[in-house]
Every structure is written in structure tokens, then in C-alpha cells.
TrEMBL record:
Biased composition regions of type Low complexity, renumbered to the chain: 1-20
KW Methyltransferase (keyword) present: no
Biological source species: Hibiscus syriacus (Rose of Sharon)
Pfam entry (one): Cystatin
Entry's Gene Ontology molecular function annotations: cysteine-type endopeptidase inhibitor activity
Name of this chain's protein: Cystatin domain-containing protein
Keyword Phosphoprotein: no
């Protein structure tokens, strides 16, 4: 019985590994085709280019703490992004179109929770965080009521194999001069 399990698992493992590589390749090609201006690092690039400095990491860490991950600097280290780091996305038509349903879901979540009637206007910026088969999107969006009152919102929406799941949606707090002024003074 164990012999049949090992012989049948090998082709499946190879098939899912190949499918995974194909999906990643298609996604990278899609980003290039949509002119998001991401450079793809090849395996021949040196590892020195993928390292971030202690200063960069401190600046990043302080920004995550100060903004809950919504306002973080772009780092140079590619390996950092695949290790659960929060990464600012370059806004292009591809991301605006892809993330629009997530923004609408976030506004609907906020309206249901707060008994309001905001509608999604536009995606201002987005960050992502890859965690295995899940991606957390940190969305900064503009919403408007029928009376033309606008507000800026922050939402975390998780994408997995199914529909997007809104973790929360809240009004973006205005910048403060007190509190963690050191972490936000450079912005």
C-alpha cells in the first residue's frame, strides 16, 4: 500500500510544481505586459542586490508600526518581498482594475458596519503582503456619499483561493504631530 502511494504521489508532485511555475510565469508576464514597470530579477543576479541595509529595515519597521502597514517605503531587496514583507505596489491600470472589486467589498463592509452609504470612488494606493497562498492587500481608497462628502479609508482585504475577505475598513486617521512623530516625520 505504501508503494502505490509513493509511485502515485511523484507525478502529482511534479505536475503541481510545474503548474505553480507556469502560474508564476504567467503572472510575471502579465505584470510586464501591463506596463507596471517591475523589473524581474533573474537567478543569475548576485545576492548582494537582494539584501537590505539595517537602516532601510529600521525605516521600514518604524513605518509599519506608525501606519499599520499602509504607508511603508519601497525597499530595494527583492527577497524581502517574498518573505512576508509589506510592499508598495506601483499604481497602474492592471492593479487599479484588479483591485477595484476588493475596494468595493471594503466600502460595502464599512457601510454595513457603520450604517453609512459611501460608494467607492478610486484606489489611491495599495500595498501587498504575500503570506503563502494568501495575499493581504493594504488599500487606501476614496469613498463618497450621495451628498458628495468624501473621505479616505484604509482597508485590509485578504485574497486566497476564493472571494476576497475584508479584514477591516476604517477611516484614515489624520496625521498627528504627537505620538510617533519620529516614524512619520519624513513623510
Amino acid at each position: 500500500m505504501s508503494g502505490s502511494t509513493s509511485s502515485s504521489s511523484s507525478p502529482l508532485d511534479q505536475s503541481s510544481s510545474n503548474n505553480s511555475k507556469e502560474l508564476r510565469t504567467e503572472k510575471l508576464e502579465g505584470l510586464t505586459e501591463n506596463k507596471c514597470n517591475y523589473s524581474v530579477k533573474s537567478e543569475s543576479d548576485t545576492d548582494d542586490e537582494s539584501l537590505i541595509t539595517d537602516e532601510e529595515y529600521k525605516r521600514y519597521s518604524d513605518a509599519v508600526k506608525a501606519s499599520d502597514g499602509f504607508d511603508v517605503p519601497r525597499l530595494t531587496g527583492g527577497d524581502f518581498y517574498y518573505g512576508g514583507g509589506i510592499v508598495p505596489l506601483r499604481m497602474c491600470d492592471y492593479y487599479r482594475t484588479t483591485l477595484e472589486p476588493f475596494c468595493v467589498a471594503a466600502m460595502n463592509h464599512y457601510n454595513q458596519d457603520k450604517k453609512t452609504n459611501y460608494e467607492f470612488v478610486r484606489l489611491i494606493k495599495a500595498n501587498d503582503q504575500v503570506l503563502g497562498c494568501f495575499i493581504n492587500y493594504y488599500l487606501t481608497i476614496e469613498g463618497r456619499t450621495s451628498e458628495n462628502s468624501t473621505k479616505i479609508f484604509e482597508a485590509i482585504v485578504t485574497e486566497s483561493l476564493g472571494d476576497p475577505e475584508v479584514q477591516f475598513c476604517r477611516e484614515k486617521a489624520p496625521p498627528t504631530e504627537t505620538g510617533n512623530a519620529e516614524g512619520s516625520s519624513g513623510k
